[in-house]
Write a structure and sequence with these properties.
The chain has helices at 18-29, 49-56, 80-93, 114-127, 144-159, 176-188, 201-213, 231-235, 247-263, 294-323, 328-338, 437-440, 444-477, 489-504, 518-525, 527-544, 568-588, 610-635, and strands at residues 2-9, 34-41, 69-73, 97-100, 108-111, 134-138, 169-171, 195-198, 223-225, 242-244, 270-272, 276-278, 346-352, 381-388, 398-399, 402-403, 415-423, 426-434, 508-516, 550-553, 558-564, 596-603. By secondary structure, the protein is α/β, with parallel strands linked by helices.
Length: 636
Amino acid sequence: MKKIAIFENGWGRYISYAWVDGCRKYIAEHNLDVCLYVFNTFGDYNYDYKFNIGEYNLYNLPDLKHFDAIILEVTNVAIPKYKEELIEKIRESKVPAVSLVEKIDGFYFVGIDNYKAMFEMVDHVINVHHAKKINFVAGPHDSYENINRIAGYKDALKKNGIPVENERIYSGDFSLATGTHAFTHFWGKRLMPEAMICANDNIAVGISHEAQLHGMEIPKDLIVTGFDNFDKAAFYTPRITTIDFARDDISYSAMQIIHKLWLGESVDAEMLIPVCNIYQESCGCPECNNTRTKEQYIIDKIFAEEEAIAREQEMNQFKRSLINCNNFIEFADKLPEFIDGSSFEAQYLVVNSDMLEGNDVNVLERKLSSNYRTEGYPEKMSVLFASDAGGRRYNCKIRNRFIELEDDRTKSGDVFFFSPIHFRDREVGYSVFKNGDILMGSSSLFEILNVMSDSMENLFHRMVLSDINKQLSVLYLKDSLTGLYNRMAYSQLATPLYENCIKEGKPLSVLFLDMDMLKYVNDNFGHDVGNVAIKAIATTISSVCPPNSLAMRYGGDEFVILIPDCDEEQVKIIIDNIQIESSKAEQRINGTFPIESSIGYCVSKAGMKLNECINNADAMMYQIKKERKVNRDLRK
């Protein structure tokens, strides 16, 4: 099965799903064995620069050499750097690529003749409606569509003998707000025209609304035209004169180019689809017939608003449920409860493997990864969730960061829809929906991804905070000189450990160790050398005692060690080993000063408290210490 990668950037919270529709239509009509991998970002919705970086990082995920063709429509990518990098990666891949809407050197192109369509629109306003003062409200200055539409406007003026006045051109973006700002600008500058030519319908509606607020009638006082034939134009009052074209025809034609290339047939580098200028009330022409009435449009809007309210309530419930998760495994288990399975065939969630480290509750002093990646994806990633719409889990593999999705269930025309998961600019992973037509046809996907990202970030920070608190607790219980536990650990760690062994009937040995001749070392070599001796004993204790032991620095030169599952025979061996390793430690410092200790012990018994056990071990240690001192004195 062949694979096509589609790169696109959504408009606001919505997806340009027409590109997918056109491709699927061609695939079905020509019985091609092809599936689509769509890499969608929402980089122009948020004005947060770092958020947009996190979105556009998705373009770094796929290895393009594994695809048989590439389609891209990235005219509205908010950060040029990422658009340029993607284009360069596509060039380097040597995979056939078709650019939609915008001409890009080295790529095949399918789009419309923006210049000609706008030229004819302006020419109509001049020759049919006799306008002479004509302003233009443009979109982004670097947009391919916008550049060609401005050129068409200027040349239509020149052709009709009207001078081009740059002060009558206002640039913004393709939003409705640009229309309102442009009107206010021209009104304040006393540059009001007879006609406002707008780069798209959003701008035209903004102009019309602001004009009416200023007491103007359209088209009597001001002609307004748009471009794109959005619903805003078709159902505004008055209906906006606009330019229509079928977006799915563009992607359908792109598939036609790709198919011909696969067959080895010759292909034109450029393909233009027809447009239709729709002259309506806003320029003074009669209203065109519309398959939907304004009344039906209002009804549709009412029900859409109700659906949006219901969806918002669902998203709030979804968020509340995810907030209560304690780790990412619980998080994954919650997803099927709230994401409507009727909206897609399967869902996958891939995250950085270090995100899952927090699920290991047995690691007391775990260090969460400090990696902060804003570009690319790590080699090690994990499938957190993979399930079909019925809740059946899949086993999926990761190869070079990329989840392997195709299996015996994959069929021609399947669409795998990729979206990034990130904490602002920090890369976290990505989500995939299979055949999510309903999700893609509304803002639902954007809302689901937003809730998932926010909830994952909240959970991650809670886990980090919990980990830091654990580390702080450990530091509170640790002796700074030796790294062993301090006396504060007695009640929090030692007592529970002791009581648990008594309850389970297991032996526990308590050692009480007191260093010999530390005062001599301090007096003759200094306290810094005395500290070296103390650390040497602590290191010896840690190396000799079993890993499940609990060793505490009980006082200046006193140590208490609890060893679970240790009887009298075993504890004697451990004491002998401590003395042997202490002698070795002394030899390593060339015998400069003694490293010696007296050690007593007590094995727990039913009914005996920990404090009693420690006192018994202390008493034995004291007796041994006296005997060792006598022996040293005799040797003098």
